[in-house]
Amino acid sequence: MAGRGKLIAVIGDEDTVTGFLLGGIGELNKNRHPNFLVVEKDTTINEIEDTFRSLGSLPGRVVEANPNQRDPPLWDEIDSRQFLNRDDIGIILINQYIAEMVRHALDAHQQSIPAVLEIPSKEHPYDAAKDSILRRARGMFTAEDLR
Fold this sequence. Notes:
Blueprint: E1 7-12, H1 14-22, E2 36-40, H2 45-53, E3 62-64, E4 89-95, H3 96-101, H4 103-108, E5 115-119, H5 132-140
Parallel strand pairs: 1-2, 1-4, 2-3, 4-5
């Protein structure tokens, strides 16, 4: 009997999250917390950081991203819903421009599962120089290894 697989989670703009939800990745865990978050223009940096650690603490919530605001999160019981500690999540997809807003939180995550992958958005193209996984991979090889 095969065990249940792990989920893909998404933190992104409305177009990105909608596309992945239409592709079928939307799930609720046993506590009815979703594996996605739509980030919009008024979301504070703290909300994005806390969401990265505890995605889905506000079911169905749409928040807006504003890098100039650093307000505390508006929800309770974050510890019981930590996204990085959810055992049902295997991959976290995050728009690269959102990842830049919370780079220190992403860099602090050193475990292989859940894997954190930065993806482009419709309005922000992918920049390989900013990708944390590519930066780590470059540090593993010397120039002679690549010849």
